[in-house]
Structures
1.
Amino acid sequence: MGGFFSSLFSKLLGDKEMRILILGLDGAGKTTILYRLQVGEVVKTIPTIGFNVETVTYKNLKFQVWDLGGQTSIRPYWRCYYTNTDAVIYVVDSCDQDRMGISRKELVSMLEEEELKKAVLLVMANKQDMPNALSPSKVSEALGLSALKTRTWSIFKTSAKTGEGLDDAMEWLVNALQGKH
Ligand code: G3D
Ligand code: MG
């Protein structure tokens, strides 16, 4: 792998394993973003409980992706996936105003998880190539991000389709994660 992101992530890698979750409602653009990163092969697994997990491993850096929303009964099983998580990339479809409230609820309950208390949060206000996309400040407001007092977080506008904004967002994340160590 010799792309922009792998050289960026190389900055992060000591001996320690790093884990990054990419979360958000279905259709937000998570899988597209994962492939955009081009740091390795995407492996899809379906645990018996029945939610899809996509994983990319780059050296000792691991990205895991699944969809939030939907069945709450499987929620406890997510816990197996978020121990030792260093960062959450929360992806929002900026055009999907109808589900912004659900997205907010999902984010809030995720951030309440003890295991995620120390995780850095990067919000991607995605699909900014669309004319009806809400601005990042509107997305931030809709998600209630200003209420986050103790967490290291930021929001970026992105388009997984054109690639716009992804570099800036990931650079912020790498710097934020370096600051943690
Ligand atoms: P998910 O993994 O979060 O469920 P996907 O989302 O990555 O599968 O993306 C859902 C759909 O949105 C896909 O379209 C994908 O191409 C599109 N998409 C993702 N990111 C962007 C973006 O930034 N801009 C635009 N315009 N579309 C985007 P399809 O048609 O394949 O379902
Ligand atoms: Mg997906």
2.
Amino acid sequence: MTIDPTIYKQRRARLLEKMQRGIAIVPTAPEVARNGDTHYGYRYDSNFYYLSGFIEPEAVLVLVASPEKNGGERAILFCREKNPEREVWDGFRVGPDAAKEQYGFDATYPIAQLDDKLSELMGNQPVLFYPVGHDTAWDQRILKLRGEVQAKVRSGIRAPNEIHDVRTLLNEMRLFKDEHELSIMRRAAAISCQAHRRAMQFTRPGQFEYQLEAEFLHEFCRHGARHPAYPSIVAGGANACVLHYVGNNARLKDGDLLLIDAGCELDGYASDITRTFPVNGRFLPAQKDVYELVLAAQTAAIAAARPGNTWNAPHDAALRVLAQGFIDLKLCRGSVDSVLESESYKRFYMHRTGHWLGMDVHDVGDYKTGDDWRKLQTGMVFTVEPGCYIRPADDVPLALWNIGIRIEDDVAITELGNEVLTDAAPKSVADIEELILP
Ligand code: GLY
Ligand code: MN
Ligand code: MN
């Protein structure tokens, strides 16, 4: 695979600028054993990949902001050595020499030299940045190495005095997606939309939820998105009222709704889409009432997603529409303001209206600056996903029992407003019914 190292070099340069001084250590994720000789599918660490583009396990990126102390090397990769025997069993390894050329590092070393080199590189650096507390084994390893450097004090070498979490800097960088990232996210979104369309066309009463899950995996994989970005939720009827339902093993009933929350990961970037539609292709009147309400709440929330508004504006907009709707449907009593004030809506809508989206499905980045919700800015990407989940209860109209609906899209803030990346998955009642039963 040939990669263009330019964007990764630029990101490393930006992080170095933010660090100002010291050294940063960013390890990739470990492989995790499943059982016997099998591992869980490998997924690199998002921060490591963001800065390197490197996808092999057993690799560590080191960035040095004061490189005059180590011969001018600023970006250093430690990775697995070439090993013809292991490559017969496990496949190709880039190896340090080719990694230097192809990925644009100043220096590369075999991973086996990491500890020795690190205690050299840490010497006389004032600050140490790494993902503090992310992985206990790394915490211990790094503190032990720092201790070894400290023991050299009589040779005139000082250990870093300050330790900072490198993620404070990286999270803020990752919150603003560049054009390269947006183009991958558009493609991930398009594949997931295609999968939702396919699922709508394949759904019939009597099928099992996992059979629809299979249609998603099929569509993701055949477009090169080898994995879902999170476990797919395929929830028929009452199962849709379980927010994190992943059993996916019930039979779909005629007359029920089906909620599917599924999105692929492509080249390290997530998509996250929910659609809810009738198993038999036609909404019942009560289902349609609740569906139109959630759709109206989502429309209002998306309209509020524009630069200058706060992160909370879409949530507030959705809540206002839902609160009025819950009163109209006889789910809540009182005025819109009193429903909002008392939070009685939470019985039917208990989650927030979205989250940052990027390499991680619930992506990194602060939602507040100090005590205030942060302002939306160009390049931020997040989900807009209002819902309504109605469990059976004596004070709830019978026709609404067990209706669970969520509509979720991925939205990027642009200069003029927003771009809905997931527009190609149908969501109006007419478009859904037409696709399922033309
Ligand atoms: N699929 C996870 C979420 O919607 O947040
Ligand atoms: Mn989501
Ligand atoms: Mn979702």
